[in-house]
Each structure stands twice: as structure tokens, then as C-alpha cells.
Specification:
single chain; about 500 residues; mainly alpha; globular
């Protein structure tokens, strides 16, 4: 009960008028910035770092937490409405969410996302309060071999889950890995695949690729393909944001399953919320295929509910990992770690003793932020849905401008703007030829993690590859990986019709 009494003290601090203001400000800014393609919670936190010099640490981190949680919902909002997710963690929500929007259920889709974000974030916040001291012991069991096995599992799972063509999924993954290895080798210090260009020595930014492939590629697709289709018309959302009892009954199990999938990934540095959202989507898709009347591909609520709950569950747990271990799980958490150091604070077990007031006020603010996001987003779901009424030429022109502004604000480089244009054309070609974009993003996110841990494991074992299969966690991960591949192959062959080519 000691944790509960400390949490109550944290609420007394977090619920002051000043801190409530910063919670609202953070949630609103996070949602608003997340709605804009190319601008996500990580960029919002980075841009707010200079501003926080005038704030006390508690107020600053309460605002950062609001931005973190609000950014996830904002990212999903644009993905649902316009199929241009702000960050990779929102990609899975677009598959069924955008289909719902095209059928006039944009407001209901946003309501499903808001409730899913609330459930995932609230449950993860409860667990963080009571389980934070145990996070260090659990995460300490992961070494280089375990992290490499986890990355490999994510590669295979993502390539087979989000597309019906394993070949296209693998090719997309390889392209992402190719982008990830460009730049200076961290071990030898030699340039790799830079073509002699100093601008590529720092590598290709994930933000650049995400914006180019997801946002700019979609703009090119809309301009070149959709505009020539006679059936193209503006999508008009239907009135009403309320979910029916049938909708709630359909979404409830997916919210809980997505939360369960997202929680463990908040402690493992495996790319933040990207992987669990795809895995949650994949689980729901597999379960849906067992139904007599499968709904995926036609705007299935479960395909949206699970990724949203998984994403926020991961975010909540990742904040716990940052506070208890000093372990940044995502780009936003890494920026927040820099903010802690800016104030002379070092996240970790000692932070709970030395800055208990800040820690427990911040943990209490997680619960407040969940309620605030629900208040902000549920009543205004129809207002966000009205973005669909903006004429497509103006809307996509605006998206293009924000893409360019977002990239230039991040890098201050014209070279990156040209790179966005080139990679955007690649994204357009992938879109036209039905190549999945998710494996590409996952390859970029986890490629460096997989490479670093593979090399660390081999260096520690003097080149003995058997170290990659040593340990119960590694064996379990590879066993689950084999089962996943076998089930995927079995489903491919069982799903064939007699008229399909072998």
C-alpha cells in the first residue's frame, strides 16, 4: 500500500491548477502536432525543450507526458482520416480505420481509437505504479542474443502479417534494412553506402523515410492515380460520434488483447509502439479469419481497437521503464531522457528516492492525461472527421507543405528535402504495386538494433554463433518464431482455391 499512498500524494501535486494547465497543454499540443504528417510527439518534445527552461521540472515533465500520449492519438487521427499516419506506430490503425472513414464512419473510428488509447494507457499506468521496481530485474535478463532474436522475430512477423505476399513483404523489409545501414559504421568508423556524400555520413533519418514513404508517397498516389478514377469522390462523415452497443461489444475484447500485447514491449527497447501495434493487428486479423463471415478489409472495428490499445499500453510502460531504469524505449523517451539530464536528474532506481515528489506527480499525471485525452478527443471526434470535407487538392497540398516544413525543421538541410522527394517517389511505386510499407519502416527501426546486438554477441563469444541460441529466452523466441512461420505457411496453402496458381 506504500505505492498507493505515494500515488495519492502525487495526485495532490498533479491536480493543482498550474499542473492541470500543463497536462491540458501537453495533451492538446501532442494531439494537434500528431495530426500533421511528418510532425510527431518526438518532434514536439524536441521543439519544446528550449521552452521548458522557464518551467520547474515537475511542470515540464507533466507537459512532456501529455505530449507523448497525445501525439500517439494525433498520429492515428490523420492515418484514419487520410491514410497518412504521422508516425510508424500509427500505420496499423490505418488499415481498418481508414476503411471505416471511407464508409462514412470516421467519427466512430476516432471514438474507437480514443477509447482504446484510454484503456491501454490507463491499465499500463496502473501497472507502472505497482510494478516499476520489478522492471529492472525483468529487463536485465535480455542480452545481445535476446535482443537479436527479438528483432528477427519482429522482422518475420511483420513481413508475414501485414501482407498476403511474403515475397513483397520480405523485399520491403530488405529495402528498410538497406536504408538503415547507410552512414558511418559505429564499430569501425568507416562510411558505408554513402556514395562519397558527406550528407549521408549521419545516415538516413527514420523521420525522413517515414514522411516520404507514408505521407508524400500517398500524396503522389492521390495525384497520379486516384485523380484519374471516375469514381473518386469526397468522403463525407456521417453525423454522430456514438458507438452502438454492438460496436462496443465487438471492440472490447480487442482493446483488452491489444493492451496485453503492448504492455511487455514498453520495457524492451525494440522500437517503441511500432511492433506491438502490428502484432496486435495481426492477432486480430488471424482471429477474424476463423470467423464464418470475416470482416477485415471492410472496416473491422477490432482491427483498429487492438493497435490503438497496444500503442498506448506500450507508451505507458515505456515511461515506467524510463523512470525506473533510465531506459529510453522510443525516440520520444530518448528526448525526455535528455530533458532529465538538462535538469540535472538521472532516471533510474535512485530517482524514486532523490526526486520522489517529481516521480509520483508525473505518474499521477499519466492518469490525468488519459482522462484529458478522452475529454478532448471524444466530443471533438466529429470535428476532426470534418477534415475529410476539405477539398482534396488543398488538403494534400497542405500535407506536402507540412512534410517539407517538418523535415527542414528537423535537419535544417536542403539535401534532406531532396531525399524526401526521391524516397517519396519510391513510396509511390510501392503503393501502386501493392508492396507493404510496414516492413520497410520496421526494417529501419530495428535494423540498427539487430546489427548492434548481433555484433556485440559475436564479439563477446569470439565469433561463436552458438551464443545466438544460448538461453531460455532466446530458445523461446525462436520457438515462437518457427511456430509463426509454420502457421503462416499452412494458412497460405489452406487458403488457396483450386483455380489459384501453385
Amino acid at each position: 500500500m506504500d505505492a498507493l499512498s505515494l500515488l495519492m500524494e502525487g495526485f495532490s501535486n498533479a491536480l493543482t491548477l498550474e499542473n492541470l494547465f500543463w497536462v491540458f497543454a501537453g495533451c492538446f499540443l501532442g494531439t494537434a502536432v500528431g495530426v500533421l504528417p511528418g510532425l510527431g510527439s518526438s518532434m514536439a518534445v524536441a521543439l519544446l525543450l528550449p521552452v521548458t527552461f522557464a518551467l520547474e521540472p515537475t511542470a515540464a515533465f507533466i507537459m512532456f507526458a501529455g505530449v507523448y500520449f497525445g501525439g500517439l492519438f494525433g498520429d492515428s487521427t490523420m492515418g484514419i482520416l487520410m491514410n497518412t499516419p504521422g508516425q510508424a506506430s500509427a500505420i496499423a490503425s490505418t488499415f481498418e480505420g481508414h476503411t471505416m472513414a471511407k464508409k462514412g464512419r470516421a467519427a466512430q473510428a476516432l471514438a474507437v481509437a480514443a477509447i482504446g488509447a484510454f484503456i491501454g494507457g490507463f491499465i499500463s499506468s496502473v501497472l507502472v505504479v505497482f510494478l516499476a521496481p520489478k522492471l529492472a530485474d525483468w529487463s536485465a535478463n535480455f542480452g545481445p542474443a535476446e535482443f537479436f532474436a527479438l528483432a528477427l522475430f519482429a522482422f518475420v512477423a511483420t513481413s508475414s502479417v501485414v501482407t498476403d505476399s511474403a515475397v513483397k513483404g520480405v523485399l520491403s523489409l530488405l529495402l528498410g534494412l538497406a536504408f538503415a545501414v547507410v552512414g558511418i559504421d559505429g564499430v569501425t568508423g568507416t562510411p558505408r553506402f554513402t556514395l562519397g556524400s558527406p550528407e549521408l555520413f549521419d545516415g538516413i533519418s527514420l523521420v525522413t523515410v517515414t514522411v516520404a514513404v507514408l505521407a508524400l508517397g500517398e500524396v503522389f498516389y492521390q495525384a497520379c492515380i486516384r485523380s484519374h478514377k471516375s469514381e473518386h469522390r469526397m468522403i463525407r462523415p456521417k453525423k454522430g460520434t456514438y458507438l452502438s452497443k454492438a460496436d462496443l461489444k465487438e471492440a472490447a475484447p480487442a482493446w483488452l488483447r491489444g493492451t496485453a500485447i503492448g504492455l511487455p514491449f514498453g520495457v524492451i527497447p525494440a522500437g517503441g509502439a511500432d511492433i506491438p501495434t502490428f502484432l496486435a493487428y495481426g492477432v486480430e486479423r488471424k482471429l477474424d479469419s476463423l470467423r464464418k463471415n470475416p470482416r477485415f478489409g471492410r472496416g473491422a472495428i477490432r482491427g483498429l481497437a487492438a493497435p490503438e490499445a497496444a500503442g498506448n499500453a506500450t507508451t505507458g510502460m515505456s515511461m515506467g521503464a524510463l523512470l525506473a531504469l533510465g531506459l529510453p524505449i522510443s525516440a520520444t523517451a530518448a528526448i525526455m531522457l535528455a530533458a532529465f539530464k538538462q535538469y540535472g536528474l538521472q532516471p533510474g532506481p535512485l530517482l524514486f528516492d532523490r526526486s520522489a515528489d517529481l516521480v509520483w506527480a508525473l505518474l499521477a499525471s499519466f492518469f490525468v492525461a488519459m482522462v484529458v485525452l478522452l475529454i478532448i478527443n471524444l466530443p471533438f471526434a466529429l470535428l476532426w472527421a470534418k477534415l475529410l470535407l476539405i477539398p482534396a487538392p488543398y488538403l494534400y497540398a497542405g500535407i506536402t507543405v507540412f512534410c517539407a516544413l517538418g523535415i527542414y525543421a528537423t535537419s535544417n538541410s536542403t539535401f534532406d528535402l531532396l531525399m524526401v522527394l526521391g524516397i517519396g517517389f519510391v513510396g509511390f511505386l510501392m503503393r501502386v504495386n501493392d508492396y507493404p510499407l510496414a516492413p520497410l519502416i520496421i526494417g529501419m527501426v530495428l535494423g540498427p538494433l539487430a546489427e548492434t546486438n548481433l555484433r556485440d554477441a559475436l564479439i563477446a563469444s569470439s565469433g561463436d554463433f552458438s551464443v545466438l541460441f544460448d538461453g531460455p529466452i532466446v530458445i523461446t523466441l525462436y520457438a515462437v518464431l518457427v511456430i509463426t512461420v509454420v502457421v503462416a505457411v499452412r494458412n497460405k496453402f489452406w487458403g488457396r482455391t483450386p483455380t489459384e496458381p501453385k
